[in-house]
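Q: Can someone sanity-check these two? First one:
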Amino acid sequence: MAKGKTRKELTDYDVKRKAVKLVITHLKKKVEKDYMGREHILKWIEEMEELLSKPEFEMVEYFEMRRKLNDVIERTLDEEMRYKLRDSWYSLGRALDKKVKLK
């Protein structure tokens, strides 16, 4: 580490935000394929990115977005894509449970 630079202390919310961003990145790769209902998941991703850009981290908003993702999954007709989206739904739940690792 360079002289004079201090290391930012990570909070649980920083860790959660980073984990959620990773889930969204993986989800974007999954929806590259064209399928019926794709516009719903793309709209959800857009809303989630807006939420991630906010400086504050309100858990209630993230839980609401996870509920919305479940609604999108239920409306997805492509069975293979529904399973892939369901995996992302579980990953999002695990991301929201993350905490800072103690030394």
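And here is the second, same format, sequence then tokens:
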Amino acid sequence: MHKLISLSNPFVVFILFLIVAIFNIILSVHFITILFAGIIFTSFIHSISFKYYWSLVFSIFAFVFIEISNGLSIGSLSLVSFFIYTFIVPKIGNYLKSQIFYFGILNMIFYIGVFLLFSINSEINNILVSKIILNFILDLFLVSFL
């Protein structure tokens, strides 16, 4: 988990926050915002693990922009991320040694949580499921390059 140098820099996370804010203000499309949710989640986990508090604040603000854009309750993505960090990361962190596989499993669990949030707030359709699966696959590629 020490390899994610780009997510430890608060300036990189701030630029990511600005990109998420601009896309959520200009383009109100689920595809783009859910795509950035996985990257923000990875930044959230990394910054809370190594106590980078400025990066954590920018990650939470980016989650708020995503939640407002998609009609979710404010703080719901942060709570899902914190739940995953508190209960799931200690369990699977001991068993998985590959960083890419580790973050892939964490992102899959996060997207299951996002799917459950969308199923609570709105009805589920094939377009939403396909967007979540596509964004998960894209996040696997993006996180593997970070």
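A (reply): Looked at the second one. The chain has a mean pLDDT of 84. The helical segments are 10-26, 30-49, 53-70, 76-93, 99-121, 126-145.
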